[in-house]
Amino acid sequence: MRIVRTVADLRAALQPVRGTGTVGLVPTMGALHEGHLELARRARAGTDLVVMSIFVNPTQFNDPSDLAAYPRDEARDVELAGSAGVDLVFAPDVAEIYPPGFTATVTLHGPIVEALEGAHRGVGHFQGVTTVVAKLFGMVSPDRAYFGQKDAQQVRVVQAMVADLNIPTEIVVVPTVREPDGLAMSSRNRRLSPFDRARAAHVSEALRAAELAAAGGISDAGSLVHAARKILHDNAIDVEYLELVDADTFRPVPVLVTGPAVLAVAVVIGGVRLIDNVVLRLAPHP
Ligand code: PAF
């Protein structure tokens, strides 16, 4: 497994496989966990050469203290990436991605970037994500890129970006990997105190309650949200948002219909912001 730090070295390393095999990209900000490793394993199974980018992208952080607190441990990340079948780690520094004089941005519009994460982290968040992902796609030219369903809105935004910009990369969405108690894997989990780590399990429990309610035939958004909110409230968890949105448009849906909807949640537990979601559908008639 090789580590490259410049776009020139990245392109040179990819040259032998161009035209002969497929390239998979797993974009990450490091602090790898099982969720990332599952993306890497899927890329290993689905493409001939697997690139993982490790780059803590400053432009997608609205809060400088969040950026500063973001965990970084490249040596550990590289070892884990190798164990999951990554061939090449691309770990550039900030100036390689955003050289002096850099002014370009990739900006989408509408609810998919303005709702939920866009509303709470600011519209600059997804602009930072789409700009860096478009640049990574331009650098790697991957046949497939792998993203986790845990970041459901990010997945939808990246799908819209590749469609809008005619980028010939297939976006592969990989199911959320969870701890045994249901907590979605996240680099932020390691910042939870043991007490808060135990409480964090109630986030997936809340989503599960809504899922069970939907499976039982409840279809109005208010009741589904209430089922989840009650569990968060009973456990004194601060909710930033908890909303049922259309999985395609990210507009609020008042009632489940045939298409998939996403019940998305962001909470803050012990100062750590966590997100999770579940896809809900109308229960089939008995
Ligand atoms: O999901 C992430 O880790 C980041 O948003 C991504 C896709 C690597 C872009 O910086």
Q: What's the helix and strand layout?
A:
Blueprint (H helix, E strand, L loop, with lengths): L1 E3 L2 H8 L8 E6 L5 H13 L2 E6 L9 H6 L4 H10 L4 E3 L3 H4 L13 H4 L2 H5 L2 H17 L3 E5 L3 H13 L5 E5 L19 H22 L5 H14 L3 E9 L14 E9 L2 E9 L6
Parallel strand pairs: 1-4, 2-3, 2-5, 3-4, 5-6
Antiparallel strand pairs: 7-8, 8-9
The site of pantoate (PAF) has 10 residues, from strand 2 and helix 8.
Query: What's the CATH architecture name of the largest domain?
Result: 3-Layer(aba) Sandwich
Shape descriptor reads: globular
Number of strands: 9
Strand content: 15-25%
**CATH third-level topology of the largest domain:** Rossmann fold
Helix-strand sequence: EHEHEHHEHHHHEHEHHEEE
Q: What ions, cofactors and ligands are bound?
A: pantoate
Backbone CA Rg: 19 Å
Q: What characterizes the major β-sheet?
A: 6 strands, parallel
Mean pLDDT: 97
> What distance separates the N and C termini?
53 Å
Number of helices in the DSSP assignment = 11
Describe the protein in words:
The structure is a single chain. 41% of the residues lie in helices and 19% in strands. It is built from eleven helices and nine strands. It has helices at residues 7-14, 34-46, 64-69, 74-83, 94-97, 111-114, 117-121, 124-140, 152-164, 194-215, 221-234; strands spanning 2-4, 23-28, 49-54, 88-90, 144-148, 170-174, 238-246, 261-269, 272-280. The strands form two sheets. Strands 1-4-3-2-5-6 form a six-stranded parallel beta sheet, with helices on both faces. The relative contact order is 0.13. The protein binds pantoate. Pantoate binds at residues 27-29, 57, 60, 129, 132-133, 151, 154. Residues 27-29, 57, 60, 129, 132-133, 151, 154 line the site of pantoate.
